[in-house]
Amino acid sequence: MKIKMIVTALLLSLSITVAAQFVTTAEAYEVALSDVRLPNNEVGTIGFKRCPDCDFETRRVNRGTVYEFNGQSMSLEKFKRSLGTVDRSKNIPVQVLHHLESNQVTKVWVLVP
Fold first, then answer.
1. Rounded distance, CA 106 to CA 99, Å?
2. Per residue in 33-58, pLDDT tens?
3. Global confidence as pTM
4. Contact 99, 90 (CB under 8 A)
5. H/E stretch holding 66
6. How far apart are CA 38 and CA 47, in angstroms?
């Protein structure tokens, strides 16, 4: 019985150590297409609202930011043209991936049914 207690205590102490090593490096936001303001250039800022009643937030983008439309990676200009073909009344979600350490948006993508 004592051996089971010792093994259990040892395993629990190891799991606490492992859990302490997780660090959040990025946050992903799902926002409505109508609540997104895309940057004018490859280097600039993207604006979005996390909820309909929230204020707009801005995050930096750079030439390394990836834009995807239905799984296809493309330039910012082509991404904007593709979004221009989408019916904005359908509440299409846009995902924005924000890298916390660099404070940069690394990816913006949309899946249109």
1. 6
2. 989 999 999 999 999 998 889 999 99
3. 0.77
4. no
5. strand 66-69
6. 7
Look-up: residue for tokens 């404070």?
103
For the chain, helix (H) and strand (E) counts, in that order, are 2, 8
Q: Specify the residue for token string 């609540």.
A: 35
Can you read off the two tokens belonging to residue 36?
Answer: 């997104």
DSSP 53: T
Q: Any residues with CB less than 8 A from the CB of 39 and at least 6 apart, and which?
A: 45, 46, 61, 76
Q: Tokens for 101? A: 């350490």
CA 79 to CA 7: how far, in whole Å? 55
Under a CB-based contact definition with an 8 Å cutoff, are residues 99 and 106 in contact? yes
Q: Which of 104, 31, 3, 90 is nearest to 62 (CA)?
A: 104
Type of residue found at 19: A
If phi over 0 gives left and psi between -120 and 50 gives alpha, with beta otherwise, what is residue 72?
beta
Question: Mind listing the pLDDT tens digit for each residue in 51-97?
Answer: 889 999 999 999 999 999 999 999 999 999 999 888 877 788 999 99
